TrEMBL record:
Origin species: Veronia pacifica
Keyword Zinc: yes
Catalytic activity: adenine + H2O + H(+) = hypoxanthine + NH4(+)
Family: Belongs to the metallo-dependent hydrolases superfamily. Adenosine and AMP deaminases family. Adenine deaminase type 2 subfamily.
Sequence ranges assigned to domain Adenosine deaminase in this UniProt record: 9-324
Chain positions recorded as Zn(2+) binding sites: 14, 16, 194, 275
Protein name: Adenine deaminase
Amino acid sequence: MEDFIRDMPKVELHLHIEGSLEPELMFELAKRNNIRLPYSSVEEARNAYQFTDLQSFLDIYYQGANVLQNQQDFFDLTWAYLLRCQQDNVRHTEIFFDPQTHTQRNIPFDVVINGITDALKKGEEELGISSQLIMSFLRHLSEQDAFETLEQAQPHLDKIVGVGLDSSEVGHPPEKFCRVFAASRQLGLKCVAHAGEEGPPDNIRSAINDLKAERIDHGVRCTSDRKLVDDLAKMKMPLTICPLSNIKLRVFSSMEQHNILFLLKKGLCVTINSDDPAFFGGYMTDNFIAVHKALNLTRHQLVQCTINAINASFIEAERKEALL
Ligand code: HPA
Ligand code: ZN
């Protein structure tokens, strides 16, 4: 079964490129850019990746991103992720990047996006991996800051398929970004949002109704509102679920407790993704294997998750046909 899972063609819809920064590359970039890390070794960094909730992770994740300084660094980060995609037979990936994490440190928007997109282009040409880029707003920052970020993205709209919303969910509900999402849609961008990861089911409703999100990132906390579960099934609203992330950030106490199988059986458009694989202990294959082992998902159910991901992707029609 593990061989079957490894060889299965996959589509990833929820991956933060900054969350694919492995400690080895973090140390290499720290050395290259003369930056001091709070860890003395790769091993010490890995040992520090013990989280109690989303915020305890975000603090370490934003700190790790400090080593990313030059266009080449963003290229190397993205290229390393694409090589892992190749190993896991990921054929298409839709990647989040957090420009504010970098522009706040005075790294120009262009440096970030050009480094990432150069690697994505090479990935398409040399590895046959297609991709899309989603610009994610940090929800702990202001609406004004998000508008400034959208402004900076204007010269690069051809490189971005949509906008997302990530960072600390509790206390920062989707409706805070209603206007900037409306402005993004006016520019032809698609909308997705993290909701119902740590926050309440109402955040999922707000992401759909106020932000017009076409996919919900995580969404697993919908189950405390049975009507919402039924509505999500009826709407065929895709959920980009990240099983290993949910365990690491203690959304569920163990994989056996995860509700992914329940949601699949309820007919929701469930997909499996890796979120921040360098921090959560696994890429796509690892996530598929973990849910299979704990919850006994059948081959048919695992394949269904991939078909759901193809259908929920923002791939152009021709490539979608080729993947299905
Ligand atoms: N949730 C919210 N914000 C994030 C995440 C996540 O899982 N990963 C990176 N930023
Ligand atoms: Zn995420």
